[in-house]
Amino acid sequence: MSGKSIILAIETSCDETAVAIAEGTDRILVSEVASQIDLHSPYGGVVPELASRNHNITLRPLVDVALKEAGLKMSDIDAIAATSGPGLASSLLIGDTTAKAIAVAAQKPFLSINHMEGHLLSPFIGDPQGVRPNLSLVVSGGHTMIVKVDSVASYDVLGTTLDDAAGEAFDKAGKMMGLPYPGGPEIDRRSEHGDPTAFDFPRAMLKSGDYQFSFSGLKTAVSHRIAGLGERWDENDDDLLNDLCASFQAAVVEVLVGKTIAAARAHHASLITVSGGVSCNRGLRTAMKSAADKIGVELLLATPGHSTDNAAMIAYAAACRLESGISSSSLDRDINPNLRLV
Ligand code: KG4
Ligand code: ZN
């Protein structure tokens, strides 16, 4: 061990119950994620009551699994961190309360972490150089943001979405096409076999000259195209579905890449980072890489395991804060479902 703080982190902001243990910013010792996708899938989206009940059942045993896997006892832990927002109130409460209870019982410091800061810093997990100034695209089920990062806790949000988040757009489009929940990974998979030029979908706000996004028009366009197919629409027609998916994905990716590259140029960034569940998307990863290469800017993508919700990113953000001299949080600090990054 390096002598750095051992941090136990809990993430329950939405439908993943996750626990991780980190050795400062050096190493993630263990990262456990208990997914609830099968539980929510019959409903086509997350059911908050089911999510919180399941966190309640799963979380405490998962903490023991993580400790055992890391070969540690609770007394070896130096600090406890939990996601305090943004997210579903009833889900956040389970993780936040459990973490505070552990911190009080073990008499260790508690750190309340912003889920979006977790995503934002996640591309640096395992990077020996640590967090460096960068221009960041964060794309998840709940958020789409372009952020200028100067250092840990010094962020400037340059743009967000005016309506749906990128992941939300993927999931809603998937639902319209009759694809299993969540739509994002399924659209990604099908896009590999489809023609991205088969349907001409709008690239909303691509030329708006700012860093704002809007995906609701694209969602409507998908709905209209499906309706326009009339009798030719067939949920079991793989070729048609693959073309729809590839065309939809191409539209989202072009806007995400276009805006990120424009922001990187305007702010003279030497590093672009991409994180959040949608950063798993293979089309986005490939397109961002070639666009970054073209302007000679380094690109750091969160690994797929650190892209969708996980507690490793919460442990890492907590470690970054501790190592930057930002002190622990008060136990009185409540969860905030609408917590902002800055
Ligand atoms: O970061 P995340 O796990 O949760 C939130 O903080 O929201 O992101 C989940 C989102 C979902 O909308 C999901 O469909 C999307 O990430 N997603 C993807 C892919 N994998 C996950 N979207 C597109 N392509 C993927 N491969
Ligand atoms: Zn997330």
CATH level-four homologous superfamily name of the largest domain: ATPase, nucleotide binding domain
Helix/strand-derived category reads: alpha/beta
**CA-based gyration radius:** 20 Å
Largest sheet: 5 strands, mixed
Number of strands: 10
Average pLDDT metric:
96
| CATH-assigned fold name of the largest domain | Nucleotidyltransferase, domain 5
CATH architecture of the largest domain: 2-Layer Sandwich
Taken together, the total number of domains comes to 2
Q: Just give the CATH class of the largest domain.
A: Alpha Beta
Report on this model:
This protein has 342 residues and is an alpha/beta fold. It folds into two domains: 6-125 and 306-323, Nucleotidyltransferase, domain 5 (2-Layer Sandwich), CATH 3.30.420; 134-301, ATPase, nucleotide binding domain (Nucleotidyltransferase, domain 5, 2-Layer Sandwich), CATH 3.30.420.40. 42% of the residues lie in helices and 19% in strands. It contains eleven helices and ten strands. It has helices at 37-40, 48-70, 89-106, 115-121, 166-176, 183-191, 216-228, 238-266, 282-294, 304-307, 312-323, and strands at residues 6-11, 16-23, 27-35, 79-85, 110-114, 134-139, 144-151, 154-159, 271-275, 298-301. A five-stranded mixed beta sheet has the order 3-2-1-4-5, sandwiched between helices. The chain has a five-stranded mixed beta sheet with strand order 8-7-6-9-10, with helices on both faces. The mean pLDDT is 96. The structure holds 5'-O-[(R)-(carboxyoxy)(hydroxy)phosphoryl]adenosine and zinc ion.
